[in-house]
Specification:
The chain has 506 residues and is of the alpha+beta class. It has helices spanning 15-26, 67-72, 75-78, 105-115, 117-135, 148-158, 161-169, 172-179, 183-189, 203-206, 228-240, 283-289, 300-305, 347-358, 404-422, 426-429, 438-445, 492-504; strands at residues 5-11, 31-34, 46-50, 53-56, 82-84, 89-92, 98-101, 221-223, 244-246, 251-257, 260-266, 271-279, 313-320, 340-343, 367-371, 386-393, 430-436, 476-478. The chain has a domain at 5-43 and 63-79 and 223-307 and 454-504: FAD/NAD(P)-binding domain, CATH 3.50.50. The strands form 5 sheets. Strands 1, 2, 9, 10, 11, 12 and 18 form a 7-stranded mixed beta sheet that branches. A 5-stranded antiparallel beta sheet has the order 14-15-16-13-17. Strands 3-4 form a two-stranded antiparallel sheet. Helix 1 (15-26) runs parallel beside helix 11. The structure holds flavin-adenine dinucleotide.
Length: 506
Amino acid sequence: MADVHYDAIIVGAGHNGLVAAFYLARAGRKVLLCERRSFVGGACATEELFDGYRVSSCAYVMWKLEQKVRDDMGLDRRGLTMHLIDPPVFFPYEDGSHAFLHYDMDRTVESIARLNRHDAARFSDWVDLWTRATGLVQPYMLTDPPTLSDVWERAKASGDEAVLERFLTSSLVDLAADHFEDERVRAMMLYVQDIADPHAPGSAWAEVFFQFGAAGGHGYYVVEGGMGSITHYMAEAVTEQGGEIRCDAPVAQVLVENGKATGVRLESGEEMRAHLVVSNADPKRTYRTLFAPDDLPGDLAQRAERLKTGTGYFKFHCVMDEPPDVSGYLNGYDGPPISYIMIAPSLDHYARAGAEMRAGVPCSEPICHLQVPTLYDATLTDRGGHICSIWGLYAPAHLAEGTWDERREEVGEGVIDYVTRFVPNFRSAIREWMFMSPWDIEQRAGITDGAIRHLDVVPSQFLNGRQSYDTPIGNFYLCGGGTHPAGEVTGAPGHNAAHHILRTNA
Ligand SMILES: Cc1cc2nc3c(=O)[nH]c(=O)nc-3n(C[C@H](O)[C@H](O)[C@H](O)COP(=O)(O)OP(=O)(O)OC[C@H]3O[C@@H](n4cnc5c(N)ncnc54)[C@H](O)[C@@H]3O)c2cc1C
């Protein structure tokens, strides 16, 4: 047994592991981070996926990173540079129509009015409704998770009980249909995310999490150097506080004695002791792979298996000779380049994509978010052309027929064909491409089922329905996206877990 003793060992150097390490080290704790891959960042990383092209391999848009975390870790002072994506979203439709979402409300109304005048007039009511709903949840991002009673009390105080009731009981389709008559506008206004079924009663509630950016802002940013710049600067901050980071150091097992975590054993066989152990890995992976079965008390193993990780997304990356060309939709457009294109023709498309995913079938007409970082960031390549990445809704982690190894090529070709229906030069401008299924995301980033927020953000796994920072195992904690408030690049779970530990584990 090595005689190095740490106050805390953190399993995984994803961004939340780094944030937790920073706050623990800043409070004077001797901290070690063990990361299985050869670089930090987890799902917030830049990787050279094509020769000479550095790509944000998983997360590709910064919109929810907590300002407090950013300030405390000095990310801007270290060099973090971000470019506001403006216009934030362009929607093309197959009948040749289009719409923009702008940061400016009047310009968005103008754009909706070109599709439907009635819907344009309802837009400010819609914004007001979601602002009230997000106001009930956003104050808890950097606190322990609230109970529903806490949220009710808040709603009472602000006179928003009816709003809360509506979100708890309505489906997303109900809410959209109450406001808008045009299918295009309904789909444009909603973030149907992990719920994957906009008709589900109560589906509106957890989607509140996706309707606000960090610190009340609504900006979407391309990070210079890719999303890995965020975690690169976070690692710098950890090291500056005396924290130690070891890459290529996969943890094989958390050591437990008398019901308490006492350290870790690496796959290399090396063992290290610590007063407490924190897992940045997702909860299912944590309990499935990091413990000897006898070390999991009660029915913890079975409960972990029941956690929901069934909503899968795919990622498609390519190098293009020229950016996606949507000029055919835009007579005389002379605004800034369009770098974010969303193909979301109707709420039925979301519903069908969700149903296909649940049936284990690759989606025939996925919702596609195209993003072209090279329109803002010249540092990603010196080889010319453009990088385009697509985040696609949805894809099953496990196929009903065949394996992803057998079908990856065919499904990727299908995505190219589908996108080309909306973006005419898409297929012809592609030089090389790769398709990442949820299964591929699991192999690469180590996230069970490729569930991008570690656990699906659905009503039963929202707020205090997420996993607690402390666990039934003594001196063992969770700090990743499976805890409150959720995945996305926020830094909030890492921040909250560290503060919880500092409060409760002297
Ligand atoms: C495809 C995809 C697209 C996304 N798009 C966006 C986006 O555009 N914007 C956004 O804000 N969010 C996005 N997200 C979500 C966001 O990236 C994640 O929710 C967030 O990065 C999770 O951070 P984390 O630190 O909690 O966990 P992770 O990033 O998953 O980090 C966990 C770390 O633990 C390590 N690990 C696991 N097991 C072990 C072990 N046994 N030993 C050592 N290390 C181990 C892993 O290698 C990993 O580095 C996306 C995620 C994915 C996957």
